[in-house]
Structure formats: C-alpha cells, structure tokens
Amino acid sequence: MNTAQQARLDTAPVYNKDAVKKKQHILDPDVELIERTARGDEQAFEQIMAKYERAVFNTIYRYIGNYDDVEDIAQEVFLRVWRHAGKFKGRSKFSTWLYRITANRCLTYRSKHKQPPISLDNMVEKGMIPDSLKTQTDILQRERVRVIQQALDELPERQRMALVLCQYDGLSYKEIASAMKVSVSSVESLIFRARTALRKRFDILRKQGRL
Amino acid sequence: MKCSQVKKKLTAYIDGEISENEQAIISEHVKSCASCRQELEELAAVTRTLDEVVDVEVTPYFRAHLKTRLREEKADEEKPFPFLEWIRRATIPVAAAALFLFSIVAGGQLGRSIYQATAQTTRVQAAEIDYITGLGGFEEMSDVSFSAIYEDLYTGGTE
Question: Which of A26, A167, B23, B93 is most open to solvent, judged by the fewest CB atoms within 10 Å of its CB?
C-alpha cells in the first residue's frame, strides 16, 4: 500500500461503512478470513488455523506450563473462533481478538488447575519437543529450560500472561492491553514486576547452581 | 529524570515501548549511571534467559482432532430432535408459559370476585345505615316546607 492509498484510507469518512470495511481489510488481512469463517467457510478457517495454531499452542504452553492439556485448550480456542466468528466486529486486529480468547481460556484453566507438574519426557513422547532437543545431546540445556519454565510458572497469573504475550508472541503493550482488557500502563507495570521478580528468582537459581 | 523513574521505565525501554524522547533520555542516563546500567543489563539478561525456552511443536493430530470435534458439533446442530428429547427440552418453557397464563386468568377472576364482594358489602352497609338513621323516611314525606310542618306540630294540625 502506497502513501497516497494510506492517506485516502486514513481520511475515509467514518459514516461510509464500505470505506471503513475496506480499511479494515487492508490493515488486517485476517478480516476477510474471519468473515468467510463466519459464513461457514471451512477453508478460510483452516487458513486461520495454519497461520496461528503454532502461536496459540506456544502461548498456552508457556502460560499453563503443562503440555498435557495444551491441545485441549487450543481446541477450545479454535472452536470458539469457529462458533463466534460472526461476533468479530473488527474493532481490534483479529490476532488481538484471538489472543484475548486464548488468554481467557488459559486464565479459566489456571483457576481450576493449580501448578501442574512439568515433565519434559512426556513432551518428547507427544512429539512436542523440536528435533534439536530430541536427541538428548544436551540434557543440561533441557534441564535449564525446565527450570526457566518453572520460574515463569511461579509468577502471578496476570504478570505471566502479560510477559508471555510480550516476550514470546511479540505483542505491543497496546495489543496486550486489548487482549487482557486492562490499560497500557497496567501492562507496563505487570511486565516490569514480572521481569523484576524473575531477575531475583534467576539470581537465586544461579547461586544454587541450577541455572 | 531520576534513577527511580528511569528504573521503572527500563522494561518498557527494552521492549521499545517508550517515546523517542524518553528513549534518548534513558540512553544518556545509563551511560553515566552505573546503578541504572547494571539494572538494565540484568533485566536484558532476564529477557535473553527467557528466550531460551524453545517453541513447542503443534501435536501431529491437532487439526484432525479439531476437525472431528467440528464435525460432531455440526452433526449435533443438524440432527433433528428425537420426540422424547423434544418433550424433555420443551417441558420447562411450556410449563412456565402455562403457569404465566394461569396466573393472569386466576388473578383476573380473583380481582373480579373481590370487587363484586366489596360492592355488595358497600350496598348492604349503606342500606343498614339508612335504616339505623331513619333517613330513608324522608322519601315518604309530603312535599311541604319545614315551616308548615312546624305549624302542624304546634297547632296539633287543627288549622
């Protein structure tokens, strides 16, 4: 999109629904996919899945810390997208809406399941560990990852969610605020407290020789 | 900017979530402030450590499982209700509607009965009052003035 097109879109009158819709489509290419999904188009839904399933999977995994339930929660997320596609009004980016669903599902899960055990061997069995770590040539690295993940799990729920969305999903503070339905300054505070807490935790783990 | 203010902004600084002006101020500040520089380095180290957590792979049959669930949902939506299921689902709304209608009809009847009973009681009470006070007797009086009646009483009706 060139500058002139962008300028035209930016000045599109808000009462012109077609212009607003066109603006949404150009700014967020997922809008068309979600609109087709709302009409029952399974191919469009598959494209959404192909684009976001890995991100959703990893967000859930990093948040709940228990991959045994990652698939179930990811299924719930995408089923909600399928069922409620018609409710997406384009007020935010589709990805933000998707992360909001994901965050809600994760928070609901964590309110029912407290601190699940972590077992990397189980991940290997399920085919969720990348090939680079499957060979077990670097057992120390795997243990290190487990310890980091455990420290992440020990953070309060909202701090962890904000940090996961920022650190791993690359969302801006504004997008995280929209996904978590809090203010941008709250997001900044949550991430600040999360990183400060992790810094102290990592210090202790280093002194214990576990990191 | 004071050290305490800078330290609060360091995570946002790492994430590139502050204005260009603030960014320039903090960059300058950490060059000359050892304490803030150390804090920044430690927070950046936390970020690097967190990056060591590798991505997990999507489970091999994830899409197949999801498609199965979608098909099941669709089948459930399209399946006509069996008669018994229809009865089971309809029982509560039908019972609620019946109760609502009954309440309206019964309420109307009850209201009418109360009104009629009250009206009857009022009529009986009015008749009793008339009887007790004797005011009903006025209806039988002849159409004459009070002075004539008085004269009749005084003279004994002789004139």
Answer: B93
What is d(CA A66, CA A112) in angstroms, rounded to the nearest whole number?
13
* Contact yes or no for A136/A142 (Cβ under 8 A): yes
AA identity, residue A119: S
Residue indicated by tokens 């669903």: A101
Give the separation between CA A104 and CA A181, rounded to whole angstroms: 10
Residue whose structure tokens are 């204005």 = B19
Largest CA distance in chain B: 137
Question: Which one of B43, B51, B62 has the shortest CB-CB distance to A199?
Answer: B43
User: Residue A2 CB: number of other CB atoms within 10 A?
Assistant: 7
For chain A, say whether B71 makes contact (Cβ under 8 Å): no
- ipTM of the complex, rounded to two decimals: 0.74
Q: Categorise residue B31: left if φ over 0, alpha if ψ from -120 to 50, beta otherwise.
A: alpha
Q: Read off the amino acid at residue A155.
A: L
Question: Domains (ranges, CATH) in chain A?
Answer: 16-117 (1.10.1740.10)
Query: How far is the alpha carbon of A35 from chain B, nearest alpha carbon, in Å?
Result: 18
pLDDT averaged over consecutive 10-residue blocks of chain B (159 residues)?
91 94 94 94 94 87 90 76 74 90 91 88 82 61 70 70
